[in-house]
Amino acid sequence: MKKIAVLTSGGDAPGMNAALRSVVRTGISKGMEVYGIRHGFEGLLDGEIEKMEWHSVGEIIHRGGTILRTARSKRFYEDEWQIKGVNILKIFGIEGLVIIGGDGSLRGGLEMSKHGMTVMGLPGTIDNDLGYTDYTIGFDTAVNTVLNLISNIRDTSSSHERATVIEVMGRRCGDIALYAGLAGGADAILIPEIELDMNRLCTEMLKGQSAGKGHSLILKAEGVAINTDELVRTLEEITGRETRAVVLGHIQRGGSPTQQDRVLASITAAKAVQLLYDDAPSKAVGICQGEVVAYDLAEALEMKRDYDSHMYELAETLC
Ligand code: F6P
């Protein structure tokens, strides 16, 4: 393959720029022409495609977000637009596409592959919710950001002897809550994969209070089936302890990527380009037990992800 393109799609994630840099520079060093598509699938449909040079991706490895910009494209769910996207790439003579994004973005890529484009998917999302890879690009940075914020919240929570519910991102996957909760010493971790047992939560909090716990931190993923304000009201009512809510929101999606995310982004992107160079069929590239892996794109997206129950039990034991 001589001409390839790259786009970032869906929610931005720290490390997307490092992945882009690696795609562009690995491609150029193999003698390929690399094109950047701005604004994800939306930009593709609008023909926002430009050739990238070695220097186009200078000074970005440390930057969060994505210099290509990103978008969530509604129209790209439809066949008609997916075919149009493939045709636009073909007009440019582009034979392969690297997509850096989460589940929805890689599914968009899968549809393009059915319409005749070779697609390599890279797992770019803070959510860590893709079944085929142990870690996604951006997850480690998001967890570290949340950890720093937990430390700040801990100061004020302990000073006022309050309970604080900290809501983090994660609609279907509670990994941000689980990892940050374990590493941040949370008193309870609520994730969408485990049905909320309000009685148990309140009993544990009351037990802690009678054992002399001065304050509590509860990490809650956004996908847990209870509204955070409602949770706060119920906890306050039952435990009698003043309770506050902090919704971290998009703060956790920005920031300079950690070493782990930069390395993960760089090595998976290089693998994706190598696969295109070798004319391999469409794949999803990720990391499993420290090794870079590449699975058939359709099969990768069928792989189910479950939370780490040992980690969850350990967090419960330690709180
Ligand atoms: O990037 C994934 C994610 O962070 C989810 O956890 C969250 O629900 C969603 O994006 C919010 O994204 P936006 O506000 O950009 O639509």
Give structural notes.
The protein is α/β, with parallel strands linked by helices and 319 residues long. The chain has 2 domains: 3-138 and 257-302, Rossmann fold (3-Layer(aba) Sandwich), CATH 3.40.50.450; 139-254, 3-Layer(aba) Sandwich (Rossmann fold). It has 11 helices and 11 strands. The strands form 2 sheets. The chain has a 7-stranded mixed sheet with strand order 3-2-1-4-5-10-11, sandwiched between helices. It has a 4-stranded parallel sheet with strand order 7-8-6-9, with helices on both faces. The mean pLDDT is 97. Bound molecules: 6-O-phosphono-beta-D-fructofuranose. Residues 11, 125-127, 169-171, 222, 253 line the site of 6-O-phosphono-beta-D-fructofuranose.
The CATH topology of the largest domain is what? Answer: Rossmann fold
The percent of residues in helical segments reads 40-55%
Q: What is the global morphology?
A: elongated
SSE ordering: EHEHEHEHEHEHEHEHEHEEHH
Q: Characterize the largest beta sheet: strand count, sense, and whether it forms a barrel.
A: 7 strands, mixed
What structural class do helix, strand and pairing data support?
alpha/beta
Mean pLDDT: 97
Low-confidence stretches: none
Strand arrangement, major sheet: 3-2-1-4-5-10-11
| Named CATH architecture of the largest domain | 3-Layer(aba) Sandwich
Ligands in the structure?
Answer: 6-O-phosphono-beta-D-fructofuranose
Q: What is the number of E strands? A: 11
Roughly what fraction of the amino acids lie in strands? 15-25%
Rg result? 21 Å
CATH class of the largest domain: Alpha Beta
Distance between the termini: 54 Å
Number of contiguous helices:
11
User: How many structural domains?
Assistant: 2
